[in-house]
Amino acid sequence: MTPAMWGALLGGCAAAGLLVVAARVRAIRRPQLALRVLPYVRDLPQVGRTPGLRVPSPPTSATAGVFGPPLRAAADTVERILGGASSVRRRLARADLDKTVHEFRIEQVLWGVGCFAATAAVGVLRLLTHPGSLLVWTVLCGIAFVTGVLARDTHLTHQVRRRERQVLAEFPTVAELLALAVAAGESPVAALDRVVQRSGGALSADLGRVLADIRTGEPVGAAFDRLAAASGLPLVARFAQGIAVAVERGTPLADVLHAQAADVREAGRRELIESAARREVLMMVPVVFLVLPVTVLFAFWPGVVGLHLTTP
Length: 312
Fold this sequence. Notes:
This protein is mainly alpha-helical. The protein has helices at residues 3-29, 33-37, 62-82, 85-94, 101-129, 134-183, 188-197, 202-215, 220-230, 234-249, 253-278, 280-310. Helix 3 (62-82) crosses helix 5 (101-129) and helix 8 (202-215) runs antiparallel to helix 9 (220-230).
């Protein structure tokens, strides 16, 4: 081929690449249908303020396009080996993570790859300085990969527990606010709307999703029954069931909310007392190893100094 033909071929490739980039940029900059429609739906919360109405953005990274297929294949393999998709789905919902089980499996693979890469880097440096058995480091890299995969699952459990603690800490205040609004004459839905707009937190986000379901046409009892089924806390489940029964049968809701808030506060005090009883020995550690030696030192040090001054 002549240089002119090579130049034409390279120019055609460059032009095709620029056309692909321009088409992709135009597609990315085009506003999504949800962003154009949701601002005109007055009854629903605004996008971004309610976690249940976040608009997912498609992946636009070149890295996701290149490494996406092998990561998805590895995630499918992890799913076949570990299983438990229903448990993972339930914990993702309880942790308020907007992810699917497949996306969580991909994160597990990434954690495993990270641990594998760190162990492999240490192994390569170790073998370069002190040559040894390659098989041992290969086994260690495999163990590191499995550890990373399991560590992501353990981290998800910690996220669930942390969010449940936040819900329990917020529950008495939210229940009291709902009781005050209902006692002032508002309907349960209007009281729920007022509390959601003026509060923030994990429980407020859950109630915001319930309010969005109610405003889209779902019955109040069914929406709160779904919250009771999705929650992993018996107190929140009892709270949702109490509101659903009160709305359906017309029972006094304010007294129920006040009683449930008092129950949660009493449960928190009881848990604090039980935790202090379990950690009684740990609470004695600073007293025995810090306060007591300092007290003894202050008591005997002047006598020791006085003996040194009086002895010849």
